[in-house]
Amino acid sequence: QLFCDFGEHFVVHDPTDAEPVCAFVQHISQGNPGIVTCVAGDGRGHLFCDGDTVTFSGVEGMTELNGRQPCPVRVLDDFHLEIGDTSSFSPYRCGGQVKQVHLPQEHSYKSLREALLEPKLQVSPPKELPRSRSLHVAFQALHAFREQHGRLPRPRAPEDVQRVLELAQRLAKQHGPVDETVVRAFASVSAGDLCPMAAFVGGLAAQEALK
């Protein structure tokens, strides 16, 4: 099992992990709002989306745009973007590039204690939700069993399986009914160790640690 405790104020500096979109400016109107005419490097339409934040560089004439704080855009069509008020800026002459900026985002996450009590299970298709809920409870029952006995349930030992099931049913009062078949199967093989799975979880843990 792996739990990533990101805390209440976790900042994601690059939410998309994608290359920023950019385009070459052909014209910028003076107005409120200002209209930017631009094309991609291959001459096709830009790839911006509504709400993207952008910066300008290399603009001649309307130099007030160069180096400004990122501003949101509204897409009009494949070649035109709507930006803020440019009515007081100098007339556009030529050149320039408009580039997307990925702004940091702050997210809040539950602690382990809170996440165990109120799990947010995301499954597809939805019919798998009862099974996922049962596995969530089964893992907690497994931890409780280990605390009580100092070991994991013995493989396919009926008395150990029954004890895990009883612990799961007690925990189910907080999470809803559990599937006994799922819990029994889980407890029967929980002492096993799959090397490929261990390698995957280890790699995932290393990736999260780098964040």
UniProtKB/TrEMBL annotation:
Pathway: Protein modification; protein ubiquitination
A Gene Ontology molecular function term of the record: ubiquitin-like modifier activating enzyme activity
Keywords: Ligase
Domain Ubiquitin-activating enzyme E1 four-helix bundle: 104-171
Superkingdom of source: Eukaryota
Ranges where the Ubiquitin-activating enzyme E1 FCCH domain occurs: 32-101
Family, similarity comment: Belongs to the ubiquitin-activating E1 family.
Listed name of the protein: UBA1 enzyme
Source organism (scientific name): Crypturellus undulatus
